[in-house]
Amino acid sequence: MYLEIVTPDQKVFEGEVISVTFPGTDGSFQVLNNHAPLLSTLKKGMIIYKDEKNEYDVMVDGGVVEVLNNKVVVLAEAIVEEE
User: Fold this and answer.
1) d(CA 34, CA 81)
2) Is 45 left (phi over 0), alpha (psi -120 to 50) or beta?
3) Contact at 8 Å (CB) between 39 and 55?
4) Which of 41, 39, 47 is CA-nearest to residue 25?
5) Which residue, among 66, 25, 59, has the nearest Cα to 43 in the 3D structure?
6) CA dist., res. 57 & res. 39, Å (int)
7) pLDDT at 82
8) pLDDT per 10-residue tile (average), the chain, 83 residues
9) In angstroms, what is the C-alpha Rg of the chain?
10) What number of helices (H) and strands (E) belong to the chain?
11) Distance, CA of 72 to CA of 4 (rounded, Å)
12) 10: number of CA atoms within 13 Å, CB side?
């Protein structure tokens, strides 16, 4: 599936992934290929996405995620720099 993570300032990631885990406001959840359509809000937390070889993470300060037809778009409020 195709994942795109953007903030008002930059495009953080764009590419093919096999899974994504989100910090939903009602609890964390994972999206895999062929997931049902979904629209959800995100709280501050870690988005973890995996491709065929590696696992990556990015800390966001909230936002929204839309899943539709194997395309996942994340509109994050901001990226939080890890200390």
Assistant:
1) 31
2) left
3) no
4) 41
5) 25
6) 21
7) 62
8) 96 97 96 96 97 95 97 94 64
9) 12
10) 0, 7
11) 6
12) 5
CATH topology of domain 2-76: ATP Synthase; domain 1 (2.60.15)
Q: Which residues make beta-bridge pairs with 59?
A: 46
Of 9, 7, 20, residue with least CA distance to 71: 20
pTM of the predicted protein model: 0.92
Q: What tokens appear for 65 in the block?
A: 């995620």
Tell me the one-letter amino acid at 57.
D
Q: Using alpha carbons, select from 56, 67, 55 the residue that is nearest to residue 75.
A: 67
Query: What residue ranges do the domains of the chain occupy?
Result: 2-76
**Cα separation, 43 vs 26, whole angstroms:** 9
Q: How many CB atoms lie within 10 A of CB 29?
A: 14
